[in-house]
From TrEMBL:
<dbReference type="InterPro" id="IPR011333">
    <property type="entry name" value="SKP1/BTB/POZ_sf"/>
</dbReference>
<feature type="domain" description="BACK">
    <location>
        <begin position="69"/>
        <end position="147"/>
    </location>
</feature>
<protein>
    <submittedName>
        <fullName>BTB domain-containing protein</fullName>
    </submittedName>
</protein>
<dbReference type="InterPro" id="IPR000210">
    <property type="entry name" value="BTB/POZ_dom"/>
</dbReference>
<dbReference type="Pfam" id="PF07707">
    <property type="entry name" value="BACK"/>
</dbReference>
<dbReference type="Pfam" id="PF00651">
    <property type="entry name" value="BTB"/>
</dbReference>
<feature type="domain" description="BTB">
    <location>
        <begin position="11"/>
        <end position="59"/>
    </location>
</feature>
<dbReference type="InterPro" id="IPR011705">
    <property type="entry name" value="BACK"/>
</dbReference>
Amino acid sequence: MIQSKLKLTYKFDDFKELLTFIYSGKCNITNENVFVMLDMAEFYQIKDLKQLCDDFFPEMELNLTNIFDMLEISNKYSMNRMKESIQKFISQNFKPFFKSDEFLNTEKSVVTEIIALGQIFAIKYEEMFQAAYEWSENEAIKKQKELNDGNLNMNDAIKVEMQDFLPYIKFNQMEISFFEKYVVKRGFIFTSNELSDLLESVQSNVRVKITNEDGQSIYGLIPKKSSTVNVIKSLQNQCSDGPSKRIGAMRYLVYTVYYYGFFVGICTDPPDTCYLLAEMNSETDFEFTEDCKIEIV
């Protein structure tokens, strides 16, 4: 894929920009030459030029057509800033992303990397599972056609592909309606005992909802038997004292030891003074404001 874009020999104008950078520390990087400049920087081991290319990539427009090429390039050349932009784009466009033909036909290593992103960027586990399953199903269909084997057991083929994705998916954080309608129908990827245990864990949760003053909401799941449920019920229709603090990249509902109250923080690693209660997700954008309300729904 990349090789079709990056030739082994470079054009005069591209090499001129390389020499200009070597002598002056400056060059003109554009959408048209950035991939070639990056390849030359890698080939000639010019770290400063490579960094300049990495700084340029966030300015480029990402879309469902070029995102896979960009992801492949970021991996090949270890482009950190570029990778950050790609990950943000994927997290914000995950559903159309995994529904695309490009996703269904990409390499498994790429799919695994994308599914693993879900835990970092608060992608819903329902969407992560659906993406993994649809890719696995498409892969099984392709193998059946390649082998020209009408007797290939499709369920077994899908199950084999799914095994690498399952460790990234927290089934006990799924909505019960999705689990029953989507996961159970594809229960052949689990043993009967595994499926029974997963169903029990999903059924043991209730949904907590937090709504800001603009009507935007985020949701999470907590155990039905937790004492937290009664505490939250006692707080219904009460507004928060102020906006929640932000830490890291994930949304969690936590209980603070020092202040003896609830707050919603965006954190990847809650501090020792907090008890983690639930991972929070939203259907749309959610802004932390004053006067947030919490309830069991």
